[in-house]
Structures are given as C-alpha cells and as structure tokens.
Amino acid sequence: MECTAIKKWNPEEAPICVEIVCPVMPKLENGNTKCSDENRHQSICRFVCGEGYRLKGSRSSICTTDGKWSAEMPVCEEIICDELAIPQDGSKDCSGDQFGQKCSFMCNTGFDLSGSEERTCQADGTWTGVPVHCNKATCGLLPKCGRDRSWDDFPPFCQINRCEPLTEPSNGRMFCVADNTFGSECAMSCNMGYMLRGSKSRTCGADQKWSGEAAECVAVQCEAIHEPEYGTMICSKNRNFGSICTINCDSGYDLIGPRQRACGAEGRWSGLPPTCELIHCGPTTSPQHGNVTCSMFDQFGSQCQYECNEGYKLVGSNSRVCQESGAWTGIQPVCELVQCRPLASPENAFVACSSGNDYNSRCRYVCTVGFELVGSDNRVCQSNGRWTGDRPYCEQPRHGSVQCSAGGDFGSVCSFTCDSGYSLVGSETRVCEADHAWSGSQPYCLQVTCSVLVPPANGYLSCSAGNLFNSICSFSCKTGFNLQENGIILLQHAQSCHVRPPFSWITEEAAAQTVQITDLAAAIPAISVTSSKALLFASV
Q: Is the peptide bond before 228 cis (omega within 30 degrees of 0)?
C-alpha cells in the first residue's frame, strides 16, 4: 500500500489473510483415501487400493501454498494377468484372468502333462506355477524270451487302476467311496466360513487320474466396504468370514443404520450400509410472551437464548444447548407474568387495584372519611416486581378529629370537630348511604383569624402572632404622645384575638389607673396658668 499526496492509501482497503485450502479430495474408487488435515495447507493425503486392485499414479499428494494438490488423483486398476496359452495337444479351462482366478490344464489322450496342472492369478499380475506342455505318451518295451527260455522281465498281469490318494482340503472334509481305486468317487465339502474352489466331486478314471480340479477351501471374503462420510470404521479379520466392522460417527453426527456389520458365511455383509447424519435436536419454540434466538437452528452445538417480554419473568433455563444425544439441555422455559407482593390496606383506609398484584396493576389508596392520606395515593407494579412509591398511611384530620359510629359500614355516622383556634368548614356530620357514598362534603379545619389591626397615628403596634387566634397586640405612642381612648389617657393598652364568633379583638384590663386631664387649671386651682398654645407635650 502507498500513502498518496492526498493523505489516502492506495489501494484504500488493506489486504486480508485467507486460509489456504485445496479442493476437497474426492473418494478413491475401489480404494481408500486418508488425509492428515482434510484439505488444509500442508495436509498429506495417502491412497491405498483394495485387494485385487493396483494403484496407478502417486501414492500421496500434498496441499501446496498455491491451493493445489501436488499430484493428480490416482486410480485403482483391477489386477489382470496375461492370458495363458492353450498347450498343444491339450486344453485349458479358466474362470478368468483377474486377480484370484484359476486356470486348469489337461492333455489329450495319449499325451502326458508336464508343468503346473493349475495356475492362479497373483496380486503382482503373474500366474503361479510353470508353463504346461503335453508330451506324447510312450509304452515302454515288452518282455523278451531269453535263450534260457525265460522272460527277461515278469510277465504282465492286469490289476485295478489306482489314482494318487487325494488329500482332504484344509478347512474342509472329504468322503470317498472305494478309496482311490478306479471308479472311486470323492466328495468335498468346506467348513463354515470357507467356500470350495475346484471340483466338488472327483472320480478316479481309467487313466489313473482324478477327474475335475483339485479342491481347496478358501476363506469366504466379503466385498470391500467403505467407512461412511463423517465417520470411521474398524474391521477385524480383514474381510474374511466372521470379520466384524464397527462404525462410529464423528462428534456431532448420529449413526443411521447398524453400528456393526458382520461378514457372513455366504460372503455378504449383514445389515445395510450406515450413514452419519448431522445431529438435530428438533426445533425449540419461543415461550409464550417471549422469544428465543439460536446460533445454529437445531443442529448439534447450537445454543439458544431465551428472554421474556417486559412484564414477564423467565422460569427455567435461559440458555439451552443441542447435545450429542439429540436432546436439549435443561427444560423448556416459560414466561410468567411478573407479580409484586400483595399490598396491605393501611389502617383507616382501603386499597383498590386494577389487576390485583400483577405487572402494571395500578392500586389506589383511599382513607376512611375524615382521615387524610400521607404518601403516594397511586402505586404501580413494575417489571422488577416492586411497587412504585412508598406505602402511604392515613392520619387524623389536621387540627381536628373524627368519630364514626360504625366504621365505614352502611349507616355509619361520622362527626367532625376542630381543635381550639380552628373553625370547621364543610359538613359537621356525614352518613354512609346505600349508594356507597358519604353524604355532605369533606370538611376541613381552618385556622381562626381576627381582622387586621392598624397602628394608631403617631404610634406603634406589636402583635405576638399577627391576627391569628390568641395573638396579643400592644399599642404604644411616639415620644410626646399619650395613648388615649374616648378622651382617656391609657397608661397601658393591649388586645387579644379570641376564638369566639365573630372572632373579634378583646381589650384587656389596664395594668395601671388611667388619668383624665381636661383642664390643668382646674386640676391645680391655686396656680394661675397661662399658655399661648394648647396643652401639648412639653408645653409650659
């Protein structure tokens, strides 16, 4: 990448590293392929042909850095031996020229066979034994009569022809009539798990040879079977009779079919070829009032997460995994409606809820008539199972009290009174009527107040509690002025607000005697008094 003059990289996107993989190696027909690391880089795949087949091509191939296999896919060719010639003055009988097939040879009458009477096609593509020739038979010389009138050899005589004794085939049995003399017939049979190759019955002929072919018992072999895709197979005794192949699937795959297959006496495998299929646990459903999210649907290893809608809580496993057994872990969860703890009615009150103590239920508190609610009058059940607000309570009316004859039942009469200094506003009594409602209106206690006092001219006003009940107001004058009422000079004056309708001010008794001054001269007759001004403070 190059940083250009416009402050951008060329190219703009950085390269990424991608794992090197080669094409998936196909299965080798009539053989087997084993790879060390599937089709990843440096994986080595080795090729082996089944019995009776020869590998043509490379025995192994490596996944190279350019994503290609180092060698082409080989093939397994059937092993075929060269065709054997028919001997002159003789005949040939072959079952075939493939691996394991046999050819037997016979000479015409008057000819003797030299070489191998039977030859077998081997795994290396050659025949066992040596080539066959048919040579003309010779009779030999007759005995001659000598001068002494005696034969130079024993005179001929006739005896029953005998064939060479036959041997019982290995892993089999032989039953003969008349031993190995002319006309004797021998029957061959094989033990279980072996099959007869050659003549089942042979007869000793006049030429002192047994008819047919030599019999042998060869182990029964079943055809080659291959391990299933995504699985492995282990077999005992190669492919012979009694061989048992055990099949196992890779982790996450389920075996469909028999786990074991046996090679039977008739050369066939028991059961049908099994397969390895990906394990499925079956779809899991969303709980009512909730949903589920799965990583790989219902496949092995898939993990499903459950959650509930708002107002519902999950009961059961919140996560489940698809196991190798084909079952989900845990149990199917359910979403239950969230419930708060039931609310208790406070003393002197009752509570009414829209949906009991279920989620989103709204509960309203109402106090018995005359009582006042302190706290939340409405509470709602939340998704966390808790109520909003705090628990309220009902208290006696402020600055008063209530007395009811029968609680809050029908016909109950409640009387209201206020504390001293407070007056009742509203109905003094209320009755619980048949329509579940109280008569009258809700009363309350209002604090008593007197009229607002005004300070006198050239004077002062001081009140202990304004114009409220029991407030005491004192009046005083500025220097040079006397407090008087109706022409009477007051040494001390005060008023208090009483709680007696009409809630007026009451003048309290004077603390000292008042002095009435109407005429100073009259008060002091022996003195002559003159003044240019009215009798004001500081007048002389």
A: no
Show me where the domains of the chain are located: 16-78, 90-134, 172-219, 231-278, 290-337, 349-395, 400-447, 450-486
Compute the distance between CA of residue 417 and CA of residue 424 in angstroms, rounded to an integer: 7
DSSP 143: P
Domain 16-78 listed as CATH 2.10.70.10: yes
DSSP 519: -
Token pair, residue 321, equals 């995994």
Question: Domain 172-219, what architecture?
Answer: Ribbon (2.10)
Query: Contacts by 421-430 with C-beta closer than 8 Å and gap 24+?
Result: 421/447, 421/448, 421/468, 421/469, 421/470, 421/499, 422/446, 422/447, 422/448, 422/469, 423/448, 424/400, 430/369, 430/370
For 368-390, how does the pLDDT look when each residue is reduced to its tens digit (9 = 90+)? 877 888 998 999 999 999 999 99
User: Helix H segments across 221-321?
Assistant: none
* Tens digits of residue pLDDT in 247-266: 999 999 989 999 999 999 88
Instruction: Give phi and psi for 522, each to the nearest 5.
Output: -70, -30
Residue 458: which of 474, 478, 475, 476 has the closest Cα? 478
Query: For the domain 290-337, what is the CATH superfamily, name and number?
Result: Complement Module, domain 1 (2.10.70.10)
